[in-house]
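cron nightly-structures :: item 1 of 1
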Amino acid sequence: MSRSPAPPILLASTSPQRRAILEQLGIPFETVPPRYEEHDPPDADSVRLVKEHARGKARSAAEGAGDRPVLGVDTTVVYGNRVYGKPDGPEQAAAMLDGLAGTVHEVVSGLCLLTPGWEELHHAVTRVTFRPLTARDIAAYVAEGEWRDRAGAYAIQGRGAALVERIEGDYLNVVGLPAALLVHLLATRFPGLYGYG
C-alpha cells in the first residue's frame, strides 16, 4: 500500500532562492506572495525582528491554506548590533559592504511553520567571515547589481561568494532559508511525510 503524497507546503515568499532550496530538498510546495509589510530599523533586536517578520508572512498567507502547512521566512544580516537589511541603492550597498569587509558578521533567519492546530517559531544563525575588500572590489561587485533585494547587500550563491572567506553554520541559511531547521521541524511534526524523520 503506497502512502499518499505529502500536501504541498504553502511558501509565503516570492524569493527564487527559497523556491530553489525547497526544490533541492525535494519538498513539495506552492508559493503565495505574503500580504505583510516589513520594517527593518537598524537598531532593532535582530532575532525578534526576523521572527516577527517570519510569523507575519506566514499568518498573512494562512487564510485559505486549509490544513496545509504554511512557511514564512525572513533573513537579515547583523554586525556590531546593527541590522543590515536590503539596501535602498548602490551607495547604501557599497557602504554596507565596506562596513562588513574583513569582519565576522551573522546571518539571522526567522522561520515560522504553522497549521490551523499549531505554530512553530524559531531562528537560526550562521557566522560569515568576509575577506578584506578594496574600494575596487566593492565598486566592481556593486556594479554587477547582485546587491539588489539582498540583506547585507550580497548573495553568497552568486558572485558574492568571492567576498566570503569562511562560514560557520548552515550555508543555505545565508542563501535565504535555514534548511537544517526546516528539515528538523518537518521530521518532528510530519515524520516520514516529507521524506524526513
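cron nightly-structures :: done
Residues 46-62 form the longest helix (17 residues).
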